[in-house]
Amino acid sequence: MWRDAVLVAGKDLRVEVRSRVGINQVIPFAVLVLIVFAFALDSDRATLAAVGPGLFWVTVLFSGLLAIQRSFVIESDDDARDALRLSGLDGGGIFLGKAAAVAAQLVLLEVVLALGVIVLYGVQLRGAAMLLLTCVAATVGLAAAGTVYGVIAAGLRVRDTLLPLLVLPVLAPVLLAAARACEAALAGTPAEGWPWVRMLTVFATIYVTFGVVAFGPLLEEA
Amino acid sequence: MATAVRLRSAVSLLGRFPALAGVDLDVAAGEIVLVQGANGAGKTTLLRACAGLVPFTAGEAEILGQDMRKSRKAVRRRIGLLGHASFLYDDLTVADNLTFSAKAAGADAASAEEAMARLGLGGRLRDVPAGRLSAGQRRRVAVAAVVARSPELWLLDEPHAGLDAAGRDLLDGIVREAAAGGSTVLLASHEPDRAAALASRTVTMAGGQVAGGLLPEALAGLTEAPPRRGAGAGAPAGKASIVA
């Protein structure tokens, strides 16, 4: 399973590097969203700093959806999904590989957006350990749940519009918990943040486990 | 002689439509069998079902000794399918596509290199993204992907489509060589002359059923065995004829 995961993750990341969709489209879109939020809410930096964590994760969520969709669009073109099924690769391995590739793109996105939040919103970084753990758990959760719902929508003609409808309600707890944990870390009150980090960890664990078990059968039906 | 494909009254539904409506077919190991038929006869579904991409919903279906109604995944690495699509990632180079395909099927990168050389995809072409290839070049890459897997069962759907004369000759040579090496080939084609010259036997599909699908040994067994309940008068007449 691990060998298959590495193979699939390497392939997906190579596709993204070659296509430059992430660099040329997803990241600029994410930065634009941050800027639009800044215009829409207030030019007062104190307000922006206060709502910064929430805006950061909303932007990660919306931009991450593009990465998740891309992950399955590349399998739909030229019926590559059939080749994936024919390959005999382990379903759990394919899931882990695709989720890992999405997670890697999310990490890059989060680094860029973190810089954007610091520069544009004037957010002061504090509680680095909690911020890091929050990002890791939320990223794994987003990638795992997104990959599960991505394969569910993959075989449908309406997949492009259906995926956000399926995923956004499911990922709402991640958005909420990640924003609250980051707010607690930035406010210097980590005790208030740990329950949210635990919730993120549980969410990620559930979806990684579910994905490893269910992705193969879901891919067969897609 | 071992049987690579054994189907008995095999049914496969596409939605509610029986794309395969009781197929009887035997293909012995090492045979090259041509499946002929009009558009919509069920040729593509037959190949996709044999590849495990479409489930058999009734009847018996044994591919390379594996009961496909119990598990479709077990034999997939032993099968190579050349379908209507090329199964390529447009942003990956020819070499990347073939290396991934070979490794995913359990082969190594060297087999991908050999397949590229065999299909004339070395040199400048190997580093060209698949999205920039012509239709004929994509077809060659798709053939190379099958070659790199060294499958025991080759399922070729319109294999000559898109290939130039040299590519067609090359493909025919590869198929003959594979069969001589013990691999089994089931191919569907609308080019009867070329494909029939390649095949050792021809069967015809119509309405989701195969005429002439059973080998003489199986037919002899059928005549010696007591008649099955419900079989006989209602069985499709074409099933008993061999189109050699």
CATH class of chain B: Alpha Beta
Total number of β-strand segments of chain A?
Answer: 0
Kindly give the count of domains of chain A.
1
Shape of chain A: globular
Question: How would you describe what is shown here?
Answer:
The complex is a heterodimer of chains A (222) and B (244). Chain A has one domain. Helices cover 89% and strands 0% of the residues of chain A. Chain A has eight helices and no strands. The longest helix of chain A has 32 residues, at 45-76. Chain B has 244 residues and is an alpha/beta fold. Chain B has a single domain (3-240), classed as P-loop containing nucleotide triphosphate hydrolases (Rossmann fold). Helices cover 31% and strands 25% of the residues of chain B. Chain B is built from seven helices and ten strands. Chain B has a six-stranded mixed β-sheet, with helices on both faces. The interface between A and B is medium-sized, with 22 and 28 residues.
Overview features:
heterodimer; A: 222 residues; mainly alpha; 8 helices; 0% strand; B: 244 residues; alpha/beta; Rossmann fold; six-stranded mixed beta sheet; four-stranded antiparallel beta sheet; 7 helices; 10 strands; globular; disordered C terminus
Offer a concise description of the structure.
The complex is a heterodimer of chains A (222) and B (244). The two termini of chain A are 21 Å apart. Chain A has 222 residues and is mostly helical.
